[in-house]
Design a protein that fits this description.
Protein name: GIY-YIG nuclease family protein
Number of helices: 4
Helix content: 40-55%
Domain GIY-YIG: 1-70
Structural class: mainly alpha
Distance between the termini: 17 Å
Radius of gyration: 12 Å
Pfam families: GIY-YIG
Largest sheet: none
Family: Belongs to the UPF0213 family.
InterPro entries: GIY-YIG_endonuc, GIY-YIG_endonuc_sf, UPF0213_domain
Length: 87
């Protein structure tokens, strides 16, 4: 999740991405996303096992910011909101 292009980034894991995005959009996803306005889904990965998803989340959270930006821009150079892909 991001606040805007080049803005604040949030990394998380969920078993229901559409529901979690809705929660972030409505200020109930987390205190961090509500405070920083992270309402735009700009990047996501799918994993078969929750344990793999959690491991990946922890890894990405340790990445330097430029690595996160590169991952986003590799698939979404304009930082468009990817919510429509969830429908």
């Amino acid at each position: 999740m991001a606040s805007k292009k080049g803005g604040t980034l949030y990394v998380g894991v969920t078993s229901d991405l559409a529901q979690r995005v809705w929660e972030h959009e409505n200020g109930i996803g987390s205190k961090f996303t509500a405070k920083h306005g992270c309402k735009r889904l700009v990047w996501f990965e799918e994993h078969d096992l929750v344990t793999r998803a959690i491991t990946r989340e922890k890894t990405i959270k340790k990445w330097p910011r430029p690595w996160k930006i590169n991952a986003i821009e590799a698939i979404n150079p304009e930082w468009n909101d990817l919510r429509p892909w969830l429908l």
